[in-house]
Design a protein that fits this description.
alpha+beta; NADH Oxidase; 2 domains
Length: about 350
């Protein structure tokens, strides 16, 4: 028994080294892609993989040809409890699309994007390279689920975030007033309380948690415990600790701290409430995250008021809008945390 426990402990200890090596392999520097087809296109897809996505499920697949990259949903990676209509899944495709666009334009392509209900068709034509600061932020962008330091953002920073997170058909609203943030905090707590009371939600979330580096390296997906400030422990211990410690009161306390320490919150609202609108909301979300990175900020999602239908209705009243809010994020000056991984390129890409 002691030998077994010792071996399981090695999973946590040496898993950290495996994880760090894998992180260096995944989070490549944002340098323009070069070379011939298909190697150049493979590099573009590598940058697309670094996009934000729900639960780090990476619900996408890339079909690559000389002049097109088709990003289609991988429905085997759905999260049907938290995302029953696949809204977050399609928003994740939008995030990947925006990374791909920035990488392609910086690598000498003109890009035309055509979202539809079966995915996103990205047309590529040779053109003069247009290097974007947002492209250079791809390798540094990070969702940080930790307390921030409470520092307020300047008007210039807020304006940059506002411009990045909106486009035709997508509205970005920023909140920095304390009373508004308190109201949003109450909506987050209401949504979190409802989810914590749903055993199916808790089971689904646990399925996507990776309790140590070795487990994360094997799956190359999911929510790495180290990224949320939790210690790396053997999987069997982590599973039991989760069952014991994952409670409504402690989670609500955590989210109170997250909101109170943030510089502000941002909501993205698309005009269309369908996969095309959700994809466009994801594209706006990714631009927001990259701009926040350029401004030296961290950000994280607080989507509970959107995911719980009854709370979403209250959220819409708060917003004074009849449109579905798509994504809710907080932002501020925060720490860096261990990074999550991405699946290997050959597992998510096919040359056609």
């Amino acid at each position: 028994m002691a030998l077994a426990v010792g071996a399981m402990g090695l999973e946590a200890v040496f898993g950290s080294n495996l994880h760090e090596a894998a992180v260096r392999e995944v989070w490549i520097p944002a340098v323009a892609a070069s070379g011939d087809f298909p190697e150049k296109h493979r590099r573009l897809v590598q940058f697309a993989l670094l996009a934000a996505n729900g639960h780090n499920t990476q619900p996408w697949f890339f079909e690559v040809s000389q002049n097109t990259i088709f990003i289609r949903p991988d429905l085997s990676r759905r999260t049907p409890v938290v995302d029953p209509d696949d809204h977050h899944l399609y928003a994740s495709l939008g995030c990947a699309t925006e990374n791909l666009r920035l990488a392609a334009e910086s690598s000498g392509f003109a890009v035309e994007i055509k979202p539809h209900e079966t995915g996103v068709l990205v047309h590529l034509e040779p053109a003069t390279a247009r290097l974007s600061p947002l492209f250079q932020a791809i390798s540094h962008r990070q969702c940080v689920r930790a307390d921030y330091d409470g520092t307020q953002a300047s008007n210039e920073v807020l304006e940059a975030l506002q411009q990045a997170g909106q486009s035709d058909g997508v509205q970005m609203r920023l909140f920095t007033d304390k009373r508004e943030l308190n109201a949003l905090k109450e909506l987050v707590i209401a949504g979190n309380s409802a989810q914590m009371g749903d055993p199916a939600f808790v089971k689904e979330l646990k399925h996507w948690i990776r309790f140590n580096g070795a487990q994360a390296d094997r799956s190359r997906d999911g929510l790495y415990a180290g990224s949320t400030g939790n210690p790396s422990v053997p999987t069997w211990i982590g599973s039991r600790l989760f069952d014991f410690a994952f409670r409504k009161a402690s989670e609500n306390t955590k989210y109170v701290g997250h909101v109170d320490s943030s510089a502000g919150m941002a909501v993205i609202i698309a005009e269309r409430d369908d996969p095309i609108g959700w994809i466009e909301a994801g594209r706006a979300c990714q631009r927001f995250g990259l701009e926040a990175t350029l401004q030296g900020l961290k950000y994280a999602f607080l989507n509970q008021p959107i995911e719980v239908l009854s709370v979403r209705q209250e959220f819409q009243k708060f917003l004074g809008s009849d449109k579905r809010p798509n994504l809710l994020m907080r932002f501020g000056n925060g720490p860096s945390v261990p990074r999550s991984l991405r699946r290997r390129l050959d597992d998510v890409m096919r040359v056609v």
